[in-house]
Amino acid sequence: MTTATITLSSTIRRNPDMLVAEIDNQVVMMSVVAGEYYGFDDICSDIWRYLSRPMAVSELAEILAADYDAPRNVIESDLLAVLAEMSGKTLIQAVA
To answer: Considering only CA atoms, which of 83, 85, 76, 82 is closest in space to residue 58?
Structure first.
């Protein structure tokens, strides 16, 4: 399956087909279709929580930059890399 390239102007959402739970304040999930299990660290868990609604990547970067008191350009670069990985595993989807 091909996934769309995620950019700062993309709007993304969670894949609604994932089975998700929180254990010790960290998100864990399973893809029944792929038979894969995923566990997120604190930052990825925060990203997942913010995606409780479809959101522009630029908005998400702004929120994370404020939360983590980090330079916006660093947050954007790191966020795009994480979202590309999540998209490749079909954990998130670009909204058309």
So the answer is: 76
